[in-house]
Amino acid sequence: MLCFALVTYCTSTLLSYCYRSGDPVLGTRSYSYMDALCGCVQQFNLFGSAVGYTIASGVNMLAIRQTNCVHRSGGVSSGACSTNASPYIIAFGVAQLILSQIKNFGQLWWLSSVAAAMSFTYSFIGLGLEIAKFASTGRIKGTITGVSIGPTVTPVQKVWRVFQALGNIAFAYSYNMILIEIQSPPSELETMKVANRFSVAVTTLFYMLCGCFGYAAFGDSSPGNLLTSTGLKPYWLLDIANVAVVLHLLGAYQVYSQPLFAFVEEKAAKWFPDSRFVNKETKIRLPGSSKDGNYYYNFNMFRLVWRTVFVVVSTVISVLVPFFNDVVGLLGAIGFWPLTVYFPVEMYIAERKLARWSRTWVLLKLLSFGCFVVTLVAAAGSVAGIIDDLKASKGS
Question: Which residue range is the domain that position 199 belongs to?
């Protein structure tokens, strides 16, 4: 985690230097990843993030039901409380059908603020519950070498799990893919340097604390998502944490989808400039606003159809492949090297006109190659995990 945090901070800082071409203050702005260099990989990963967030929301909503079921049964067994996450995934998709009609980032600030507040809420609750669980036993269940090899885990399976874990960690530091879109004046470079330093430090602190205390409390039986464990108590506080996760994901889905929405809509307007279906905006006065007020919603038919299709497709995929950790690991692996490392490094080298074989050039190239290897092994581990999960689901 510390290595990923350091790499992410360094490459995010490099990317901040590339927001403007030429002069970092007066140069031409790049408002999106596509404007800066290349956005095809970004678009794929943004869609993948929407799928990952949809799966996660369904899993956490299912956890609320299971926690309450176990509590009502006196904590005897959670087997009878198991159910399918698909209805909850679909419910999340229905909510996104509505939220996806928010036109752009500028109108999304309130949802983003709620999501940020919720992330702190469930992080503090989760950490507190893990510490309480660890304190109740008084011993560390985990080991320095991780999951023990035995009847349930073979050496090969452990290797694949290690590789998959690298993808999960990479996904946790995937904000680079929207960094250019969310940079803001004044002095974007200085603002984002401070923001990168603060965000990486805070998130890494929470990741380390939650991961270490969770593994100390549960050991080899640690679930993929600790907030879905019925072993944490009190159950009502665990419910609050899971509700906070769902609310956070409602906003995160939009933050990561808006760049893709904007990209497709801008391309459609460029390709079909005379199409009323694509370009016509109809002002609809919102309930409660006066006739001369400014509370209007700009309705666009293409936006309605395209974004609805996007949400439906991402929801259907989430229902078909509801394996959160494996999907997240694969997404993290695919996006880590190209978006978090390769493009920022190459953009910085081009922007600063670094001489070939200079010390800085060599160090950046070595960093890029090392992260490329990590991406390959993480992707392989995540694919192996998805295959195993598909076999298990067919067998059951």
Answer: 2-395
Interatomic CA distance for residues 361 and 346, integer angstroms: 10
Q: How far apart are CA 326 and CA 225, in angstroms?
A: 12
Provide the 8-state DSSP code for 20: E
Give CA–CA dist 224/171, Å, rounded.
14
- Residue 367: burial class (beta carbons within 10 Å; 0-12, 13-18, 19+): middle
Give pLDDT, residue 7: 93
How many domains, the chain? 1
Summarised one tens digit per residue, pLDDT across range 194-222 is: 888 898 999 999 999 998 998 998 888 88
d(C-alpha 382, C-alpha 376), whole Å: 10
Give residue 67's pLDDT.
83
The CATH number that applies at residue 294 is 1.20.1740
C-alpha–C-alpha distance, residues 9 and 15, integer Å: 10
What size, in residues, is the chain? 396
User: What single-letter DSSP state applies at residue 38?
Assistant: -
Model confidence pTM above 0.85: no
Cα dihedral 373, 375, 378, 382 sign: negative
Q: How far apart are CA 9 and CA 2, in angstroms?
A: 10
Q: What whole-number distance in Å separates Cα of residue 204 and Cα of residue 209?
A: 8
How far apart (Å, rounded) are the C-alpha atoms in residues 141 and 216? 5
Residues 250-288 as b or e (16 or more Cβ within 10 Å = b): bbbbbbbbbbbbbbbbeebeeeeeeeeebeeeeeeeeee
Asked if residue 322 has a cis previous peptide bond (ω within 30° of 0), the answer is no
Helix H, strand E, coil C: the string for 188-204 is: HHHHHHHHHHHHHHHHH
Q: Mutual orientation of helices 301-320 and 235-271 as an angle, nearest 10°?
A: 130
